[in-house]
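Please, structure for the following, as tokens.
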Amino acid sequence: MVTFGRVLREAGLEVGPGRIADALSALDEVDIGRQDDVYWSLRTTLVTRFEEIEPFDRAFNAWFLGTPVFPPTRVRDAAAVRSRSGGRADPIRGGDRRDQQPERLEVGWSAAEVLRRRDFASMTPEEFSRARALMSELATVRPRRRSRRLRSHPRGRALDLRRLARRSLATGGEPIARSFRRRIDVSRRLVILCDISGSMEAYTRGLLLFMHAAVEAGRVEVFAFGTRLTRLTTELRTRDPEQALAAAAASVVDWASGTLIGASLKNFNDEWGRRAMSRGAVVVIVSDGWERQDPALVGREMSRLARSAYAVVWVSPLKGNLDYQPLSAGIRAALPHVDRFLPGHNIASLEDLAEVLVGIDRRHGR
């Protein structure tokens, strides 16, 4: 499937790790010995636009069925043929020498694409308003895990004895209608720790809008830290994003101040880690990694957090710069305990984060 994803990307389809994970989940639910089941499972999860159907079919036939694939036939433009023949008229047209200008193809970025690539630091309030809809879609993505309890499922393998006995009462005690159970996928807790220090001020608004949408979608805990740690989950539950940001700003006393990453992580581990908030959760730390105190404290507390959490993802707006290198002491102390290190400077980078969260269970092999 990984190699087939590369084939689809070469064919022009936008296939990332998240879609590959969805395709693998779909294949788990069907009989892979049936060609139609495999085809429709992959087409449903990997194809999103009508124009992608034809290249997908060609790639599927070549990869899974071994069908020879020939390049698509290209019809040459008559005007282009005349231009290469020195402007001579087509003899079939009976000497028609009128120059026919070929239809120009205007290629440009859509407004949504421009907004996806726009850096949060350069966004206007109007652009933030338009970006909320895109962020709301991304914020619903959650890491998944297998439930410990068995749930009723039509394709389960474990017999549901309690429901079987209850249904048999209607048939005189005969177990005719059988019910089954299986473990299903449920959302894993997501914990976000966001740096709101002065060095992150240009990106704070965009990231808080994303976290507000994530809290509204449910099963998310949000903390802000600068020189101290502040829980913002309650403030961000307000439906209006502007009111939520105002409430968050009012509750944080160290907004745009210095950065004490190690002390803030220690506060989280001592208070909230002991309440099992990070146990089995995916923890996302949003920070540029600048630390004012001893970076060794960052390393120790990141080690504690990594032992408790299922996975730790570090998101840095600075990583969006192609020339960026993680040279600051704080980030160098943290990276050995981080599962993924991602950029976080625009909506496109948040899409990458969403794909990582979707496929994080697959990557860990659980």
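Residues 201-217 form the longest helix (17 residues). Residues 282 and 311 are 5 Å apart (CA to CA).
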